[in-house]
Amino acid sequence: LQGKLTGVPDEDQFFDLKKSEHSLPPISVATWEGFIFINLDPNPKESLVEYLGVRGEELQGYPFNKLLSCHSWHAEIKCNWKMAVDAFQEAYHVSFVHKHSISDAFKVQGNSLAHPLTLKLYNHHHMLSLGSDPQSVYGNPLLKYEEKTEAVGTPQKKPIEAAALRFAASSTGGTEFSIDRLPAGVNPTKNPNWNGDITVFFPNLFTFMRVNYYQAYNFWPLAVDRTRFEGRVYYAQAENAGERFYEEYRKIMLRDVLLEDWSTVERSQAVMASGVRTHMVLQDNEILLRNFRRVLESYGGKDYTGNGISLCDEGGLSHVR
Ligand SMILES: [Fe+2]
Predict the structure, then answer these.
(1) Containing H/E element for 165?
(2) pLDDT tens-place string over residues 271-300
(3) Cys bridge to 97: 51, 67, 93, 189, which one at CB 3.0-4.6 A?
(4) Rounded distance from Cα 182 to ligand 1 centre (Å)
(5) Structure pTM?
C-alpha cells in the first residue's frame, strides 16, 4: 500500500539496482464529504478545499452523510471525455433527447424547455438550478402526487410510473429531508418547485443534488475517443416495500435515460470524427459548456473532441455572459 517496489524477478542479474529508487510515483489524496479526490501532483499548489472553492462551501450542510445507499451504472462510451461531460452540463436537450422518458421532469409552468432557474460560474466549476414538475417520477419526489384524470390530449402516465409516484408521495423520508433544511447555496432561488442543482467540478465530476438523493458521475478518458462512465446515485435506506419499489423504478428509468444520452453523444462524436463539421454551435442555455471550455483552455487544452474540433468558431470568453 506504500507503493514500494518489494521484489524483482531475477534481481541478481540487474546492475546496482536500488529498489528504493523504483517505487510508484507518489500522488496526493484528499477527501471531501466522503468523496475521494486524487491529484497527480505530489505537492499540490492548493488544497482540495481551496480548489473546490466557493461551491464547496455552498454545499456544506447538504445531507451527504444520510444518503448512504447507492446504485450505479458503468459504461464505456465511444466519445471523447469532454463530449461526455458536456452531455450533462445543460438541460435543454431533455425535452428532445428524453422526449419519451423524462421530458416532464424539469418542466415548470411557463418554462416548458427546462431553462435554468439560475446558474453560477466559479473559477473552475459551475452550477445550474432546475425547476420541476411535481407530477414527474424524475422530479422532486417529496412534492405531493395528485392522481387526477388527465385532460384530453395530455399523455397518460404508464400504470407502473403512476404506481411509483404513489409510493414516492407516501415516502417517510419527507420528515427528515426537507427542502427548507437545505443549505443556502442549494436551490439558491428557493423555488418551491425546485428539482435539483447540477454542479460540475472541473474536470470530471458531475453532481446533481435533489432534496433526498443525489447523483455523482465520473468521466474517465480511456483514449481520445473512448470514455469510461461511472454513474452513482446515493439515497437513504428504504424503510418499506413501497420506497424500495420506487427506488428500483427510478434506477431502471435512469438506465434508459443514460442510454438515450449515450446514443446521442456517440453519434455526435462520429459526426465530428468524419470531419464534415468543423465546429459545434451552442445556444444560450449551454453557457456551462462555454465556461468548461474557458477553464479547459486555461490548462492549455484546445482540441475539444480529439479531432481538432472547437466548440465555437470564435473565442469562448466572448460567448460567456
Ligand atoms: Fe440527458
Answers:
(1) helix 159-169
(2) 888 888 877 888 888 999 989 988 998 887
(3) 93
(4) 25
(5) 0.87
